[in-house]
């Protein structure tokens, strides 16, 4: 049986918020505050609105997104959060200001990208030609287009046979739909998927729901010190080739 190995993006391929080190060195605000300031500036560029009211509307948009992500298992593009803020002040017609803000928010992590997790480049070289390789990742602020740019900038994009990003396929982990979509794009059955990621529900239970396999990656953040449902725990990506050997993957 031909196998496919898929990776989560954040805290698996790259170290989430490692870009904050570079931002701090450049004297830039942390991303949450920088985003809020950008929203305030965009709204006030077209209307005299109280800053506290704008920040409250942005907080409401973030809360709505978290519900969609965690409960509805979908991650709408950041454009939807921007639109909801402008609509809160009857500014829905200010398309240019909205799109300018979307560009700022969607590229913040592209301009100052996160750093790679240890051993990522080496394991991707080892997996090339041995298995189909993909990414299955939720998108929070930076959309799939931005994550592709980050991968290209790290010279990683060419290693992946498929990249499945939640804002593009209309569902997020642990929805079975996103893993079925990955299997389809990789040309394997769902039971041939081996998914590597740092979150038990998303990255272990998710692939298991379609008959696949989940390996828990703890090389950046160990979110589950006691393990998760008997899934193998990887402390470094260099363990993956030997684990494939153990499954009889040629």
Could you walk me through the main structural features you see in this protein, from its secondary elements to its overall organization?
- The protein is an alpha/beta fold and 250 residues long.
- The chain contains eleven helices and six strands.
- The chain has helices at residues 19-25, 31-44, 51-70, 78-88, 95-111, 120-127, 144-153, 166-169, 176-186, 200-208, 240-246, and strands spanning 4-7, 132-137, 162-165, 193-197, 213-217, 233-234.
- It has a six-stranded parallel beta sheet with strand order 3-2-1-4-5-6.
- Helix 5 packs parallel to helix 7 (144-153).
- It is elongated, with a radius of gyration of 19 Å.
Name the structural class.
Answer: alpha/beta
Q: Approximately how much helix is present in the residues?
A: 40-55%
Outline type: elongated
DSSP summary: helix tally: 11
Provide the succession of SSEs. Answer: EHHHHHHEHEHHEHEEH
Radius of gyration: 19 Å
Outline the biggest β-sheet: 6 strands, parallel
Count the beta strands.
6
What is the residue-mean pLDDT, rounded to a whole number? Answer: 97
Low-confidence stretches: none
- CA distance, first residue to last residue: 10 Å
Strand content: 5-15%
Q: Widest sheet: strand order?
A: 3-2-1-4-5-6
């Amino acid at each position: 049986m031909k196998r496919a190995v898929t990776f989560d993006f954040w805290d698996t391929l790259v170290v989430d918020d490692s870009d904050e080190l570079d931002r701090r060195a450049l004297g830039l605000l942390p991303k949450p505050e920088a985003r809020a300031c950008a929203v305030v500036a965009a709204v006030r560029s077209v209307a005299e609105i109280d800053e506290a009211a704008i920040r409250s509307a942005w907080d409401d948009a973030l809360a709505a997104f978290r519900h969609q992500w965690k409960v509805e298992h979908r991650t709408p593009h950041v454009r939807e959060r921007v639109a909801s803020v402008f609509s809160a002040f009857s500014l829905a017609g200010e398309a240019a200001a909205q799109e300018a803000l979307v560009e700022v928010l969607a590229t913040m992590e592209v301009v100052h990208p996160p750093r790679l997790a240890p051993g990522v480049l080496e394991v991707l070289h080892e997996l090339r030609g041995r298995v189909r390789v993909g990414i299955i990742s939720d998108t929070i602020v930076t959309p799939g287009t931005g994550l592709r740019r980050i991968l290209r900038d790290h010279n990683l994009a060419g290693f992946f046979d498929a990249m499945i990003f939640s804002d593009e396929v209309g569902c997020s982990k642990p929805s079975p739909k996103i893993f079925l979509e990955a299997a389809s794009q990789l040309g394997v059955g769902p039971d041939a998927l081996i998914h590597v990621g740092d979150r038990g529900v998303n990255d272990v239970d998710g692939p298991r729901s379609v008959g696949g396999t989940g390996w828990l990656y703890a090389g950046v953040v160990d979110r589950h010190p006691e393990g998760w449902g008997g899934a193998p725990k990887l402390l470094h990506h260099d363990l993956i080739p030997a684990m494939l050997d153990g499954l009889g993957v040629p």
